[in-house]
Amino acid sequence: MDRPLKAIGLMSGTSLDGIDVALIETDGESVASFGPGRTYVYEQAFRDLLVRAIADAREMTDRNARPGVLARVERLSTERHGQALASFFKEFPAYRDVDVIGYHGQTVLHRPEIRLTVQLGDGPALARAVQGMTTGEGATLVYDMRAADVAAGGQGAPLVPVYHRALARGLGPPKPLLVLNLGGVANVTYVDGMSDPIACDTGPANALVDDFIKARTDLPFDEDGLIASWGKVDEAAVARLMTHPFFHRPPPKSLDRNDFRAWVNEHAGLDAMSTADGAATLTALSAASVDAVLPFLPARPTRLIVAGGGAHNATLLRMLSVRTGIETVAADKVGWSIDDMEAQAFAFLAVRALKGLPLSFPSTTGVAHPLTGGVVLRPGMQRI
């Protein structure tokens, strides 16, 4: 193993809840150690602005365009990432000697079918801010990690499977394993220790439930799945929703946060449901979409390990276990982080990008061959 690098990942996901910052030490193949992680929550006004930005991005065809509020949101998002890093380094000054930072940016549009994905974030501006916070020669910044895969005909998502593979190696002898990330969108990685990981987005995770709860109540989301636990699942509605062609396509495949909004509005019948029944039905849809992937896998997984914000949703975890018939555990039960995993993954990916190692594979994004990616900014702002 090469000398492990100190790497920080910055992740602002499709749940639009805040910025995750996490540090690991890695050589890009395995993880030598886990450092601290923190989440810096967005204020409601900025969340609302992000929702507007996603709406303004819907008709984009040029990934460099910034219509509507997008230019403003990109500037503010970049500033908030800088503030999150400053807060992290203030709490953990020993890590100011970080070697590399992986910056995901904020996805506002994902349309791989037209070779378009848009992550807001001004890499050079953040790199300048970083150099004032770090010690020694400064940190290398890696950003825009999805674009190369999409430009080459891949789905551009999910990118975390290669990190899931590295984590799975620490669990003992290889067994068919499914790692599920529940953000705004759900994605899975199948790992068996025999071949490249198989991965795809499975369907909606938190986004639809969060938006529904916010529209019906003063709450931003269904904490711990409590509201859904009071409700009754409309199984007929779930069956109608599961007729969407996406659920019957084999991996690899990926989604935009809002891909199912119109479909749900047309087929779920939420207006006739109570808040609890609607939350239960949408939560069941998330579980059913994961179950729908299982027939496409080489073997039945022995365990389902769940990370991301949705891993705190006890109702969703219970539904996953029942619908899949697979032992379902939250990531912290196997020594992984529920909340930091995606940020850790982009730290890991940044090191791989720095070394020219693949970030995506034919079995994870559908790209023709294993492909690296990312824009690398060395200290002194030299782009390579």
TrEMBL record:
Family indicated by similarity: Belongs to the anhydro-N-acetylmuramic acid kinase family.
The species this protein was found in: Ancylobacter radicis
Pathway-wise, it operates in: Cell wall biogenesis; peptidoglycan recycling; Amino-sugar metabolism; 1,6-anhydro-N-acetylmuramate degradation
Q: Which UniProt keywords apply?
A: ATP-binding, Carbohydrate metabolism, Kinase, Nucleotide-binding, Transferase
Give the enzyme's EC designation: 2.7.1.170
For this protein, the record's Gene3D superfamilies field holds: 3.30.420.40
Catalysis performed (reactions): 1,6-anhydro-N-acetyl-beta-muramate + ATP + H2O = N-acetyl-D-muramate 6-phosphate + ADP + H(+)
Binding site residues for ATP: G13, T14, S15, L16, D17, G18, I19, D20
Which superkingdom heads the taxonomic lineage of this protein's source? Bacteria
Protein task: Catalyzes the specific phosphorylation of 1,6-anhydro-N-acetylmuramic acid (anhMurNAc) with the simultaneous cleavage of the 1,6-anhydro ring, generating MurNAc-6-P. Is required for the utilization of anhMurNAc either imported from the medium or derived from its own cell wall murein, and thus plays a role in cell wall recycling.
Q: Name one GO molecular function term.
A: kinase activity
Q: Tell me, what's a Pfam family for it? A: AnmK
This chain's protein is named Anhydro-N-acetylmuramic acid kinase
